[in-house]
Amino acid sequence: MSPREQEDLARSRFVVLTVLRASGVVLMLFGMGIMATRMIEPADIVGALIFIAGMIDSLIVPRILTRKWRTPPGA
Fold first, then answer.
1. pLDDT: which is higher, 73 or 8
2. What region, left, alpha or beta, does residue 38 occupy, with left being phi > 0 and alpha being psi -120 to 50 degrees?
3. Which of 26, 41, 50, 72 could form a cystine bridge with 31, CB 3.0-4.6 A?
């Protein structure tokens, strides 16, 4: 793989991780908004589930992808 291809791959992975984190934060804010404004019944349960999904999306998924994309030690 050429240095240009490696740089493009790293840049695209960075964008994917950034979008995942940002979408997770948006989901967490949306869940908190549902809990605060009582838009849906049962607001506490629905809001908490959306908040937890956003937390997983912003904290756990990027770590899993980073571990999967890591360069093997022999390469």
1. 8
2. left
3. 50
